[in-house]
Design brief:
The chain has 5 helices and 4 strands. It is elongated, with a radius of gyration of 23 Å. The termini are far apart. A hairpin with an 8-residue loop joins strand 1 and strand 2. The structure holds zinc ion.
């Protein structure tokens, strides 16, 4: 859900979700957060924490957001999730898809941190077919000239 939201191609540039994306993107690119992003992220998580309560009468420790609804609740949940990623996840696992024209961010949960694409079935396969295509494109001109010049090359 979080990544679906921040990877949305129609993400409004100045929206709260865009701030969350910028935070993860900075982590992924090993960049410092800019001051404005830091400030807005602080506001988002701060607000979320104000509404976070320990759930009563549960055996396990669980939190819930109270007094928030709709999009305010959604953004607070996302802000807490991003915060949790920063605190608990090995930041080398925050990655950007290597697919061409794909800007998707994701968490690489593979054992050896080898995941490269947001979606193997989409970007992974496109990449593979492109490598295949490039190989053949390099081979073809030779094959063409061969047929024109006879079998000399
Ligand atoms: Zn991708």
């Amino acid at each position: 859900m979080l990544f679906e939201a921040i990877n949305d191609e129609e993400l409004a540039p100045n929206s709260d979700i865009a701030v969350l994306r910028e935070v993860l993107q900075s982590v992924q690119g090993r960049r410092n957060f800019d001051t404005r992003t830091m400030k807005r992220f602080g506001e988002l998580t701060g607000k979320a924490h104000q509404h976070r309560r320990l759930k009563p009468s549960t055996v396990e420790i669980e939190f819930e957001l109270v007094g928030l609804s709709g999009s305010a609740r959604r953004i607070s949940e996302f802000a807490l999730q991003v915060e949790e990623i920063l605190v608990t996840v090995d930041l080398a696992r925050v990655k950007k898809c290597e697919g061409e024209d794909c800007e998707a961010l994701f968490i690489d949960e593979s054992k050896n941190k080898s995941r490269r694409w947001c979606d193997m079935a989409h970007c992974g396969m496109l990449r593979k077919s492109k490598v295949y295509y490039d190989k053949h494109r390099r081979v073809n001109p030779v094959a063409d000239s061969k047929s024109k010049l006879g079998a000399r090359i």
